Amino acid sequence: MDYKSLIANGRSVRDFKDMPVETAKLLEVEKFILKCKKLVADIAVESRFIEGEEAYKRLYGVAGYNGVAVKAPTYLVLLSENKDHYIENAGYVGERAVLKTRDLGLNSCWVTFNDQDAVKKALGIESDKEVVALIAMGYAANGGVKVETSVKTGDNYSKADIKVEGTGSSRIALEEMVFIDEWNNNATVEVLEERALLDAFSYARLAPSALNKQPWRFIVDGGKVVLAIDSENYSGSYINKIDAGIVMLYFGVILDVTMFDSKWGFDNLDKDYKISSNYKVVGYCNI
């Protein structure tokens, strides 16, 4: 897959055509999820597809913003073992599946929920695994919310006016997102280019997040890239963990296709990066 193109042309769709998704495409997505690279390799993940308007009716009041589910021809339900970092892994795998659906000409959007047991009951799912992601899938009726950017390799990434169409929200500049060695020591495009990290950070900048809050910041520390997430209660926040997994994917997948196989770690980092009190270091990638 052309990950750069798929990321740059990303859009979240909440209005779908009343048109079923071909079985062959669903099987291809299912096979992809089974074999794709995970954030944590030993966490067992499985996918199920719930098709038809019945899924929307069952999920009404259980999933979606204020309990209003998305009316889509198909729902992808991601199930996972409950292990350390399994929610971050769900964000990583779920968004990888989103990119795969986009590659197949489909559209999608993440659907929020608060009670995974209620989702399982509503959809009649019997499994010892937890529901960790709901993704509505189908063909877009009216385009969707799109990341607006003309940025290509070699352009001025930091000055490009990257916006999320329909929200009025702009992307943070690279200099605000990436620090060198410690907090508030802002990176420059030139330094990131010298370290061959400009592409990876530029595409990570395009990662979707809940309400487009862009809660991530990075610290380049020698041979490590450290990820910090803006959260006063990260340990209990499903959404922030999903966002962390997604941005780890976007950064890592560009390294995978441009430099080397990326690997995120979660071991405790004893070093004091002098990070802001409302941020938490959640992982690192060796470079």
UniProtKB/TrEMBL annotation:
The keyword Oxidoreductase applies. Keywords: Oxidoreductase. Residues 6-158, 197-251 form the Putative nitroreductase TM1586 domain. Gene3D superfamilies: NADH Oxidase, putative nitroreductase (tm1586), domain 2. InterPro entries: Nitroreductase-like, TM1586_NiRdase. This is Nitroreductase family protein. Belongs to the nitroreductase family. GO terms for molecular function: oxidoreductase activity. Pfam families: TM1586_NiRdase. It comes from Peptostreptococcus anaerobius 653-L.
